[in-house]
Amino acid sequence: MAKKFWALIFTLLILTSCADTKKPEQHIFSIKDDLGNEINFDKIPRRIITLAPNLTEMIYDLALEKYLVGNTLYCNYPAAARKIEKIGDMLTFDFEKILTLKPDLILITVEGNTKQTYDKFRELGLKIFATNPRNFEGIKKSYMDMGKIFDITEATNNKIKMWDSVITKVTAESKNIQQAPAMFVIELKPLMLAGKNTFINQYLQICGLKNIAEDSPANYPMFSREDILKRNPDYIIYPTGGDDNISIIKNAYPEWARLKAIKNNNVIFVDRDLYMRPGPRFAEAVNDLFTRLHQRVN
């Protein structure tokens, strides 16, 4: 009887030991990035490096910042992102430092980073996921891809519903605004505007404006100062760091004083970081522009 008792105890100890050491179920899946590459995952990444500010913003917006071990010198929003280890400036990177950080996922952008950077990471055997959010739909795709990668699809879907509701509301209310010609300045010298096939152009469209550069095939076309006089926009949207005013435009191109936008004081200075990053603040930028336009219309 005693032998049977101890045999049972021994068996229970074995089973308990096996249960304690059982590995957690792995999150195994694959997903195509925006280069069309099938990226395989056998676990949820826990050491992330982002190579562009919009990607850093997405990580924080999804409350994944505890996994962020490196980002770029330009990653300044939210404020906490400035304290993350800096590994480069989007074009050049400290690959030795990156290796010491032991990332299990690097998030890269097609437009913001270079092919040479991408190839170098592949050569080093690092896992890379490429994003290319050229418009609002692309932003949502990148965001949803992160939701799949980090197994938080419900959170990403709920956030996207909120974005869509803002866009739907502004679009509906903008129907009452005349399609006034406008230009969104990317650079003043040389003069570069946002073209038709950009997420920036969508700000104008959603808010009821007509982009004077929409006939250009380039995403960010160059224009002459004379071209702008001929197109004569009603509004000029100019991204700034916060300390610019209309004098910067008047001083750059004195003859623009004849433009309707200048005469009517319809030059709208906007936050460069908010408007120029294809990330989770897209709907916020749309709402900000609509509010500024609405104040002027009324």
Walk me through this protein's architecture.
The chain is an alpha/beta fold. It has 2 domains: 29-151, Nitrogenase molybdenum iron protein domain (Rossmann fold, 3-Layer(aba) Sandwich), CATH 3.40.50.1980; 175-297, Rossmann fold. Helix content is 42%, strand content 16%. The protein has helices at residues 2-21, 53-61, 95-100, 115-123, 136-149, 153-174, 199-206, 225-231, 247-252, 260-263, 272-275, 282-297, and strands at residues 29-32, 38-41, 48-50, 68-70, 105-109, 128-131, 180-187, 192-193, 209-211, 235-240, 267-271. Strands 7, 8, 9, 10 and 11 form a 5-stranded mixed beta sheet that branches. A hairpin with a 4-residue loop joins strand 7 and strand 8. Helix 5 (136-149) runs antiparallel to helix 6 (153-174), helix 6 (153-174) runs parallel beside helix 12 and helix 7 (199-206) packs parallel to helix 12. The protein is globular and about 60 Å long. The chain starts with a helix and ends with a helix. Mean pLDDT is 90; it is low at 4-25.
